[in-house]
Amino acid sequence: MKNLNIKELSSHLKNQIKVNYKLDKNSWFGVGGITSIFFNPNSKEDLKFFLNNFKLKKFICIGSGSNILFKDSGYNGVVIKLGKEFSKIEENNFSIKAGAGVLKNKVADYAQKLGISDFEFLSAIPGTIGGGVYMNAGCFENDFSNIIEEITVIDLRGKEHTLKRKNILFEYRKSGISKNFIILDVLFKKTKTKIPSLIQEKIDLLKKQKKISQPGNIRTGGSTFKNPANKKEKAWELIKKCGCDKLVFGKAKFSSHHCNFIDNSNLASTKDIEKLIKTTQEIVQEKTGIKLELEIDII
Ligand SMILES: Cc1cc2nc3c(=O)[nH]c(=O)nc-3n(C[C@H](O)[C@H](O)[C@H](O)COP(=O)(O)OP(=O)(O)OC[C@H]3O[C@@H](n4cnc5c(N)ncnc54)[C@H](O)[C@@H]3O)c2cc1C
After folding, report:
1. Does 93 lie in the same domain as 77?
2. Continuous segment of H or E residues that includes residue 68
3. pTM of the predicted model, to two decimals?
4. Is 295 a catalytic residue?
5. 233 is an active site residue
6. Would you tell me which of 8, 82, 139, 160 could form a disulfide with 101, CB atoms 3.0–4.6 Å apart?
């Protein structure tokens, strides 16, 4: 491995590397400090060149930042966000393959046009396929673990690996995929076929249900806490029952529409959002004995 400096890397990977880059626009929360290096590879070759020529000590790969809260103090490492060549979708004999950078709703629409069902729920979750796989995102009793055949990842040395579904330890909102892997693309299972108009009807219905149950057009990271396993009350019910839905720290507060969602329309600092999260966890634990586990990723 060569160990090029950032200037040498930048001259090869034109316009793909930014130094001391502000992260706020890369998170739905709209806040966050500066990362030492932001790398937006156009293609797999560029990503491999970077991995082969730079000693990566600390990094995180992000999708569209709909589940990420960046700290005010920033990130002392490399933030990688996959660029345009990771946004391809293709189909072979009714089996869909999508790049990690493709938005989930694009895959839902693509499948609908081909009359391939079981991808409808993707239309109701923001963000990319890579972020969805990593989080095992889901809704309406479905999640990524049900539709994946295999995924391709790349390690820090630039070597690709194929992970078969049966070897990925999916759990509720967790894939168990190592943070040392970058997800490159996903081959989905061959599922049922249906008349496209029926698939569209289901997509419309799911989107409508989501609109009713969750706030739209606010700065948020979706569900702040996971629903506790084997408990009859959901995270939002526990938050409400314990009176935490009314907590405010600086500009940080929960949404009045859905109290497991933080409403960051007023652009609170991450410090205040973290205070809101920690205090809620403490109060809920004290009053109910249940530990609320974070669903959003604080980086
Ligand atoms: C309004 C709203 C509604 C939401 N509704 C739902 C819902 O119904 N169900 C649900 O499950 N979630 C929901 N979410 C949360 C979020 O949209 C999902 O977790 C989504 O899958 C995250 O995708 P992303 O591209 O934004 O990932 P990011 O937020 O950018 O990243 C999420 C995690 O995935 C990792 N990651 C991202 N890309 C890669 C990659 N290529 N390789 C390796 N790791 C990667 C990141 O490091 C991070 O740990 C909602 C969020 C919002 C804002």
Report:
1. no
2. strand 68-69
3. 0.97
4. yes
5. no
6. 82
